[in-house]
Predict the structure.
Amino acid sequence: MTGPLLTIDKVTVRFGGLTALQDVSLQVAPGAIHAVIGPNGAGKSTLLNVISGIYPVGGGSVALCGERIDGLAPHAILRRGIARTFQNTELFGEMSALENVMVGLDRHHACGPFAAAIHSAAWRRSEEAARAEARRLLALVGLADAENAAAAALPFGKQRRLEIARALATRPRLLLLDEPAAGLRALEVEALNRILLDLRAEQGLTIVVIDHVMALVMAISDRITVLNFGTRIAEGPPDEVRRSPQVIKAYMGERASHALGS
Ligand SMILES: Nc1ncnc2c1ncn2[C@@H]1O[C@H](COP(=O)(O)OP(=O)(O)OP(=O)(O)O)[C@@H](O)[C@H]1O
Ligand SMILES: [Mg+2]
């Protein structure tokens, strides 16, 4: 494929009188790790919600491999190959890590509810295959040894990784992550960075990641888009963005040089 995987073209989103995004454009190349950063309320989550079909666009368009996807329902966008995690972890706390991933698997029950009810051989085979696939995904995010733990009992950093495994269960080509490193300690951020780089290298995933944690963003992104008050104020490779006077100014309230990891 030569063109961008994801094309966001002049997207505007309004909530009543508030403009959350104004004419925002960005392109994500296949195989890229593309970060979106910006101060609180900049419109980052709104952007992910638009891509995944949760919010409609008020103007502009979103395309995957050149085909418009804005206007499609979230489940249709998921089927096109875009999966996501949420800013607030949304796991089934009582269920095991393995079960949480199995829930995400897109299983077209080869055998219907009747077969399941009598636990037919075919049902058991499809159940076993799902279990094996869920185990594979847990291993990809470094949770091979946690499959039986209740999701709620896992340390926070592992819960975030479990969410990623569940998102991977739909076999996406584009993974959207909303602040996966928020609240993580330095070592956990490093582990997450390695996992995301491996997912790109080994699974050919393209990743759009929102984060305030510069140790993640600066270390693994190919490109960074910076939003402020709903508009794009900068875009480029990490080193360029970090030095941009406009970006430093936008982060002033957060002690710019510290916030930008320099
Ligand atoms: N469903 C909604 N209804 C009304 N206003 C909304 C809605 N979703 C977002 N907003 C507003 O849009 C603006 C952008 O919010 P958004 O959540 O996209 O910011 P963000 O960059 O993700 O911020 P944070 O870093 O705090 O997560 C904010 O002013 C927010 O209050
Ligand atoms: Mg947000």
About this structure: Residues 93-171 form one domain.
